[in-house]
């Protein structure tokens, strides 16, 4: 089992920056593919970014150049640095952990609210 707890969300003005953290508990953190997803009101959950245990990253097109995902395996923590935030970035952001070899091991955090508004 893996438990994920997100933090760092809040209210920020357009053009501002925010850094989200996801702290993991449980075994084999460094083995998992980690990701950030988001869900805006009335919309489906969408991919923000993923990072493998080897550091390979993947981003949704709208996030490229603005968001950066990183991980610290020693601290069992994943980060999402968000710059040049736009109102359309407003959503609940969720941390995800996925076992690349066992699809039944797929975990989600409780989410953290990000609101971009003047």
What does this structure look like?
The chain is an all-beta fold and 118 residues long. Helices cover 0% and strands 53% of the residues. The chain is built from no helices and 11 strands. It has strands at residues 2-7, 10-12, 18-26, 33-39, 46-51, 57-59, 67-72, 77-82, 91-98, 106-108, 112-116. The strands form 2 sheets. Strands 2, 4, 5, 6, 9, 10 and 11 form a 7-stranded mixed β-sheet that branches. A 4-stranded antiparallel β-sheet has the order 1-3-8-7, with no helix packed on it. The mean pLDDT is 94.
Q: Can you describe this structure in just a few lines?
A:
This protein is an all-beta fold and 118 residues long. 0% of the residues lie in helices and 53% in strands. The strands form 2 sheets. Strands 2, 4, 5, 6, 9, 10 and 11 form a 7-stranded mixed sheet that branches.
What overall form do the CA principal axes indicate? globular
Mean pLDDT: 94
Q: What is the chain-wise order of helices and strands?
A: EEEEEEEEEEE
Helical proportion? under 10%
Task: Please report the total strand number as a whole number.
Answer: 11
Structural class: mainly beta
Radius of gyration: 14 Å
Largest sheet: 7 strands, mixed
Beginning-to-end CA distance, first to last residue: 40 Å
User: What are the low-pLDDT stretches, counting only 5+ consecutive residues below 50?
Assistant: none
């Amino acid at each position: 089992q893996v438990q994920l707890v997100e933090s760092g969300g809040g209210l920020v003005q357009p053009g501002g920056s925010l850094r989200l953290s996801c702290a993991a508990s449980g075994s084999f953190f460094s083995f998992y593919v980690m990701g950030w997803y988001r869900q805006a009101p009335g919309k489906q959950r969408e991919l923000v970014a993923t990072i493998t245990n080897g550091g390979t990253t993947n981003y949704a097109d709208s996030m490229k150049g603005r968001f950066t995902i990183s991980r610290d395996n020693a601290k069992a923590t994943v980060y999402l640095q968000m710059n040049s935030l736009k109102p359309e970035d407003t959503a609940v952001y969720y941390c995800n952990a996925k076992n690349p070899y066992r699809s039944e091991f797929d975990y989600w955090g409780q989410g953290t609210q990000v609101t971009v508004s003047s």
